[in-house]
Amino acid sequence: MKETVTEQITRTGRQIEQDSFAIIDREAGPHGYDPDQWAIVRRMIHASADFEFSGLTRFHPAAVSAGIDAIFIGCPIVADVAMICVGLSQPRLSGFGMAAHQFIGDPDVIAQARTQDSTRAVQAMRKVRERGLLDGGIVGVGNAPTALLEVMRQVREEGARPALVVGMPVGFVSAAESKAALREITEVPWIITEGRKGGSTLVVAALHALLSLAEQRRRESS
Q1: Are 35 and 65 in contact (CB under 8 A)?
Q2: pLDDT for 24-51, tens place per residue?
Q3: Residue ranges per domain, the chain?
Q4: Buried b vs exposed e over 3-23: b needs ≥16 C-beta within 10 Å?
Q5: Three-state SS for 177?
Q6: pTM for this one?
Q7: What is 58-221's CATH number, 3.80.10.10, 3.40.50.10230, 1.10.10.10, 3.10.300.10?
Q8: Distant-in-sequence, close-in-space partners of 179: CB < 8 Å, separation ≥ 6
Q9: What's the rounded Cα separation, in Å, for the pair 78 and 43?
Q10: Active centre residues (catalytic)
């Protein structure tokens, strides 16, 4: 079997993953997702052992195709926190010539947040735009609702056009509200988890699923 950038490296690893997916398919029951959307939701359940994400996960109609198209051209991934960048598989990213970026701990970001009495997440997303990484990039937000709100502000007020926004901040203050607001965005595609649940692990799982779908497309077209 020819290995690809999105497969488990060992036969045993592949078998465990396949068995896990089979259990999820069996126990999840009926759902309204199409096959590509389900591949993403299933991997999110696999990462969290939480079947509530079948139902809580919502997709803009163009989300999956937009994400795959962006991956094919080696788009940047920009994240609100370092955990997402650490969680993403470097071999999977490099297979498409991609890199992940985050700026939340940068000294200039911290200084700007203090000066403007905002948050590091807001200033980090402004730096993302200044670096030319937002337009055409995939945005992953798993921790900071203010990062998601800032991306939406840039979309609406400044004409920013990320290829896809994966908005899954977890928490109690503005997490559910920011995702509900993203669901109303029509200018760019998005994937969200409704309510308070989410997190960086879920964003990583969704992005890995998109990378796997892109790899499948590449194999089918070769």
Answers
A1: no
A2: 999 998 999 999 999 999 999 999 999 9
A3: 58-221
A4: eebbeeeeeeeeeeeeeeeee
A5: helix
A6: 0.93
A7: 3.40.50.10230
A8: 148, 167, 168, 169, 192, 193, 194, 195, 198
A9: 20
A10: 46
